Give the backbone structure.
Amino acid sequence: MQTAKRGGVAKEAAQRCYVGLGANLPHQGLAGVALLEAAIGALVEEGVAICAVSSAWRSPPWPPGAETEGQPDYLNAVVETAAGALDPAALLDRLLAVERRFGRERRARWAARTLDLDIIDFAGATVSRPGLTLPHPRAHERAFVLAPLCELAPDWRHPRLGETARALLARLPDQGVERVAALRFRDCEGGASRIS
Ligand code: A4P
Ligand code: MG
């Protein structure tokens, strides 16, 4: 079944999944936009078909305070994939494999990291079990998730709260999130795309 079109979004709304990327440390000479683009390439190599990609957005580490003081700013993005044959656990396994490729170390909570990959929404599923919570339990309070998500799907509805990405973002206080650049990626049909 074809689920996506070049440079566009998954055709089947019920299939749409959103993955958040976040990074604030370099890895093997890669940093910033180049690191996010490499991470998106690695997702494809791990079998996660990419249908659409947001811009890269910069923001200070969240939450503000002692736990994150002195950390570099983050770059974040959101990508859209289609559930296809994957279930949420299988998608998470692939995300963890990509994090490992980028040298992810798990230290303190909120610690700086080379790459964090979170499932924001898996086709509207609600899951609450050890190791997997869907939708992502903090997505709705984070401008660094909602701003890039709004580029792809402003009318996306939070599966538990029922509110759109646009409405959730509008309600947040200023978190210092700013758009940095478009990201290059190879989409589901092998075309090179970039949103602007
Ligand atoms: N896990 C459960 N649900 C999910 C899900 N929906 N997606 C489990 C992905 N993973 C999920 O994650 C711990 C475990 O959560 C995973 O092994 C998986 O089984 P982790 O990435 O090791 O832990 P963490 O990231 O340190 O903690 P947490 O609570 O996931 O952190 P967050 O919420 O991801 O926040 N500030 C800015 N500006 N930008 C950021 O990207 N990111 C964080 C991390 C903090 N501050 C930030 C940013
Ligand atoms: Mg995470």
Observations:
- Residues 116, 118 surround magnesium ion (ligand 2) (CB under 6 Å).
- The two ends are 29 Å apart (CA to CA).
- The chain has one domain: 10-184.
- Residues 10-184 form a domain with the Alpha-Beta Plaits fold (CATH 3.30.70.560).
